[in-house]
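Something for you to look into today, if you have time. Could you write out one complete protein record for me, on any chain you like? Leave the record below and I will have a look.
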Amino acid sequence: MISVPWPRSILPSTHCNMAPRLSELQQDVFKKTYAPLRITSLKESELSKDVVGQFLTTAVLDSIGLSAVYGKKGVLTLLALASAGDVLIIHLSGSQQQSRNHSLSPRQLLQHEILCSTRLSKIAFDFERLSTALFLDCKLLIKDGVDIQSLVPGYRKTTATLLASLGGETVLHRKNTLRAFEEHTKDKGLEMKNLALRAWASYMVSTFPSFALSLRSAQHIDTKVIPKKVLAVLAKCARDYDRLSALKPMKVKNGISPDVKIKNGSLQLQQTRFKTRMRRAKDQFVVVKCKADKSTSIGRVSTAKGKSATVNLNQSLPLQGRVSVYTIGKEDLTNAEAARIDIILTCLQRTNTFFEQPFAAFIFLQVPFSKPISSIGMQLPAAYFPGTRTLNPSQLCAVKRILSNASSDRVCLIQGPPGTGKTTVIAACVHSLIANPAYRGERSIWLVAQSNVAVKNIAEKLVDTDFFNFKLLVSLDFHFGWHEHLYAKLESNVVRTDDISDQFQQTVKLFAGCRVILSTLSMLSNPRLATAGVFRLVPIETVVVDEASQIEIGDYLPLLSKFGKGLRKLAFIGDDKQLAPYGQDDIGDLKSVFEVDHLKKRSVFLDIQYRMPKPIGDFLSRRVYDGKLNSQHTISTKTSCRLADIKLSQERKSGTSWENVEEVNAVIKIAQKYASEGKSYRIITPYDAQRNAIEKALEASGVPWEDRCFNVDSFQGNEADHIIISVVRSQKVGFLQNIRRSNVMLSRCKKSMTICTSRAFLEGVASSTLLGRLAKEWAESRQSWITSRDILADKF
């Protein structure tokens, strides 16, 4: 096959009055030879009735293929329309062009004559993304849209589904096809070529003999008939997902131990970091580099269980010296991610009644509940907490709101600053609900959170309050070989996913008499639970969500879609002054329920903290919580927080992270002293590179090192008597710009906190940060600062 070189003339011109650019392209996706494609490339302002009319004369099968390019922040920048031999590429402008002489504007012309034409079927891959982007970025609607992946059974976002949709590998040039559907390239000419080929390949699907049959049962997308409020929610959820997906790395260096072996052409290794663990994935491969002779081999993960993994290699390696292992490509969608995409798509196809469900309608559309819980026959439980424990007034108010039968409380928010007893409130709710006769043996409670650690913390609180009749669900992937030690005190309550059988009778035995289940939010999308009948045995009726301020609101789509009809109560507990949903630093308008005004305005504020020494608690109250947070603690001196001025403190780049060698040395010295004194301590730092360096230094020094050092983001919800902080930065503010993450960092200690940093840095460029303000307030205390010399001499 002879390919026509991609002409530079197709690139957009900077000359506003230039006529549409014309060129030809020889397709190289299908093995069959086709006539060269005629490409017309123009700016949106150049779109005229003549151009549209000329293109429509080529759409003889009443179908066109669509494709798009999404630029910064996922915004739609290029739209391609394809017929049998023509491709029209439109460079979309940021704002709609005004019409002249009362005629249709270019954008109105595009919608009226093509996108909403009842004569044309519009065929595209990932139609949920395209249709919502058209609305979100261009205020354009579309009719008779056909999502190609919906026509093919199987996992939606995979290479296999893509190739099957286009007729299978026997009719395709696999490599060229994958390149054409690769969106991300810095080569603008290649980007335009791929865009044209994607649109034309989408059109070609409509020519397959099987398409006519599939089209009869296909659900079309028609955004013109979807209420604008609903469409806006779907578009925002789709865009947030796209942007979060884009943040996932395409290349990960896997942490492995040195004892690597090769057996029968396969690499056998032990992994050292859960965060970079290897998994079997459909569209990922592994690159293995031998440092000694710089040889490289490529392979795929064949097995991965716990810390052990096996990689089948395409060629043998000598294994001289250490090897480096990298995973390339995006990981598979989680069950929850796949469910989210499916919900958006089926809502657009109008086969999903998601927004008719009362909880979804209230949260996303502000539609009030029509029925209170009491009308469903549920008695109001009294607030109850066992033993001699008492709840403070704000905690009692929070519990009553969660127990309330009022329509206005069917969804309720509890804001709990650090140390205010969020898990105490959850435990009190469990005791109150289970003690109520209306719940005993009939009603069920699910306690969920974003992270396994948060779920484990809730479980430990229940045990601490003498409540033992619950089950904690955890995945094999997280538990086996990695985090079994976290569940030592909860072993009899833990149910691992591989323990759950498909047989309902086995499920009955496993969950016999249990009405309280703990799990992560994503676990609710695990198909094994549904297959085994877990939800039938323990229905999802009352749900309490911890760490809700860390959960992006779109993550609730699977929960609300699948269980919304049977849901009776939904309580969110969190703190929008602590960690935000993942990605908010990059996606500024990413929201949790605590950023939704009509939900937040009736939230309960837990106003007494018991964890931190009073000076630290009072400082955070003034600087973060508008003075509303009160402290009750036996320690009231500022010596509970000391700042260590580390001599020669110097930040340095380490990959995409940062480290500070002098701070590592200081942290180890402090840790050795605490260990020798038998003190309970933890080390936290904002940067992964520093965490790795500290952990290695701890191990080398002979000090207990496992589960001692944490990244700040993984330590919310945790605490320790003594906290050692390594700030790392000494020149640029970096992490400290984020007041929410800084708040988490400074609020973990129960007795003391030592902050390793640079005094000149905090009094200089970082003076306006939360930590800089703390340093300024503590400056009046002579004992607030210690030096590297003090640390070396054990004078601290």
In short: The chain is about 30% helix and 20% strand. The first helix runs from residue 49 to 56. The chain has four domains: 8-246, 251-328, 372-606, 614-792. Residues 614-792 form a domain with the Rossmann fold fold (CATH 3.40.50.300).
